[in-house]
Amino acid sequence: MLPVKTPPRVPARRDPAPSRLRYKLNRLWLRPAFRRATNFGVPAAVGLLAALTLMAQYDVRGQVLALVGSAREAIIDRPQFVITEVSVPDVSRDLAEQIRVAAFVHLPVSSLALDVGAVRERVESLAAVERARVRALASGVLEIRAVERIPVVVWRSEDGLELLDQNGVRVAEIDSRLRRPDLALIAGAGAEKQVPEALALLAETGPVAARVRGLVRVGERRWDLVLDRDQVVKLPEADAAAALRRVMAMEKGEDLLKRDLAVVDMRDPRRPMLRLTEHAVSEIERLKKTATGEDA
Amino acid sequence: MRRQLYEVQRAMRARRETALRRGIIAVLDIGTSKVACLVLQFVPDEIGEGEDTRPVLSQGAFRVIGAANTRSRGIAFGEIASMDECERAVRTAIQGAQKMANLRVDHVIVSFSGGRPRSYGCTGEVEVEHGAVAERDIGNVLAACEIPDYGHDRDALHALPVNFCLDQRSGLTDPRGQIGGNLAVDMHLVTVGSTPLRNILHCIRRCDLELAGVVVSSYASGLASLVEDEQELGAACVDIGGGATGISIFVRRQMIYADAVRMGGSHVTSDICQGLQVSMQDAERLKTMHGGLIATGLDDRDMIELPSILGDWDHDRRQISRSELIGVMRPRVEEILEEVRARLDASGFEYLPSQRVVLTGGSSQIPGLESVASRILGRQCRIGKPLRVQGLPQSATGTAFSTAVGLAMHVSYPQDECWDFETPADRQGARRVTRALRWFKENW
Hints:
Chain A is of the alpha/beta class and 296 residues long. Helices cover 38% and strands 23% of the residues of chain A. In chain A, helix 4 crosses helix 5 (116-124). Chain B is of the alpha+beta class.
C-alpha cells in the first residue's frame, strides 16, 4: 500500500483525468436548462437589475431623459428636415384653399415631427376630395396631391340639395337648383345609392331630353321619370332601362308623350297602362258624343 | 427462499427502461488495460394505432454519438484495485464521450470482466395452469428453478432462460400461447464475486451516474463478435483482454456458459518487462510494434533496438532479435490458451454441433495468434471483429472494442432474464400492497 502521506514530488505527466469538481461542473454545463439560464437568463437579469437600479434614482433619471430629449431635438431641428411650404398642385383654387386649411400644418415644421398619415386623413375627410397623397419632398415642400370628386347629379333629399358624384358620395351642398342647371336631378330616399343606374336611365331619354325634369326614387326600389307638364313614366323594378327604351320607341313612332297623358305605367312590362289627364278624358267624351250625334 | 430475490436487478431494469425512454444511454467497458465509453442515442419507432402508440425499440435503432477510451488505472484482473484511480479513468472516459456527444448521460451499463464468473445450469418444472402457457406460467417455472447454493459472497449477474421444454418437446425459445401440460425450463445462472461487483457499483455511484445494468464482459463480446450462424450452431468466444480472458459459449442464440481465466495481455507485457529488463511502457511498445507468436528464419535477423534505461547511447545499447521477443511472448500466450482449453473441455463444449472458436479482445491482435490457438484449442479459430454499428468511429472498430459494442447491442436487444418475468405472489414475500394490487389486476 502507498504511504498515507505521499511525499511531495513533481508529477511526471499531467493527469488527463478531470478532477471531481471539474467533472461535476462539466456535467452541470451539459444540462440544457442550466446552459440556457447561464447564457441568456443571467445576463438579462443583470442588465435589467442594473437598469432598474440606475433609473430608480430620481436625478439620474431626469438627466437621462433630458439627454434623450435634447438628442432627439437636435436631430429633428436640423434645417434639412424643415418643411417651409405646402403645395397643392392640379386642383382648382377653391379646393386648394380648402385643402390647405384642412391639412392644418403650421409652417415651418420638421418633417420628422409631422404625421403625414394624419394630414392625409384630414385632407381625405373633405367631401370634395376623393383621395389624397401627401409626401414631404427633399426641397422642404409638403406636396398634397388630391383627386377631386366630380359631381354628376343633383340630389334633392329631405335636407336640401346636394351634389353627388359617380358613386353617390356627397360632394357639396348647394342652395339652389339653378346653380347647377347642367346636372340632372334625382330625388327620393335611397336615390343616392343608385346614381349609376339613374345616369344610365337618363342616358336613354334622348327623344325627350329637353323635357326631363328628373328621376324620382319610389319606395327605395324603382324609378319614376318625371317630365314637364307633370307627366310621369313609372318604370319597373327590374330592367327599368328596357322599359324606358320601349317608351322611347313609342315616343319616336307615335309621339306618345306629346299627347295629353298623365302617367305611362310600365311597372308590369306585359301590360303597360296609360292614364289620360282629366281634360283629355272629357274631350274624348265630348268627341264620342259628337260622333254619335247626341247633344252636347 | 430468498425474500428480496433479484431486487437489485429489477431496479436496474427499471432504470434501463427509463433511459431508453429518454433515448440516451452510455455503455462503459471497464477493462484492465482501457476504459471505453460509448454514448448511444435511440430512435424509437412508434407502432400501434390510435392512442396505443408506445415507443418500441428495434435492434439497430441506435447510433453511437459519443465514443471515448482511456488507459485504465487501478484495475487488475478486471477488478478495482484502487478506487480513486479507477474513478478517474471512468471520469475521463465519460467526460470525453459526453463532450463528443454534447449531451449529458445519466444512465450507464457496465461490463464486468473480473469476479471469477461461474456458470450454473438449473432446471425447473411446473404444471401449466390454464392449458395455454401464459406469462404467469413462465414466471412460475422460473421461480421453481432450483437455485444452487452459490455462496453468500457471490451475486447472480445473469439468469437467462435458455431452453423451454413443453411436454417432452424441447428446444422452445418462447412457449407462450402454446398448449401443453408440463412446462420445464433450463436456466443459465451466472454469478460473480459480490465484493468486486460492489466496488464497481460504488465507483459508478461516485461518478454521479446511475447504473442501468451489469453484464459479464465475455457475454457482451460474444454478442458483438459472433456472427448469427455461429450463435445459432454453437461457438465459443474467447475475449483475451488485458488482465482477464473471458470465455462464453453460445448455442441457439443463447449463452450457455461463461467463464474467465485470470490472465491476459498485461501478463505478456510483464513477461517482456522482466525477461528483457525494460520498463513496462517500453515492453508494451515492443509487444505492439514487434510482437508475434511464430518465429521464422527472417525473425532471427530482424534486430530490435531496445530502449536504454540510462539513455547513454555509447555504453548502454542492447539489441535483441525478433525471435527472442517471440520466445518471451509465446509461452505466456500458450499458457493462456491452455487454460482456456481446460475451461472449454470442462464446459462440455465438445458436444456442440459446431465448435468454432472466435478470438477477440485487445490481445487477439498479436500476429500469429490464430494458428497458435487452432493448434492448442484443436478447433477452427478466427479473429472476430465486432459488428459494425452506426456512428461508431473508425478507431473504435477493432477487436479491443468488441465488449463495448456488445454492450450496445445488449442494450438495444436485451435478452429476457429471469427477473423480467413476475414472480408468483406466494414467493414474493411480504410486499402486501403489491400483492393486493396484483389480486385486483387479476380479478377485475
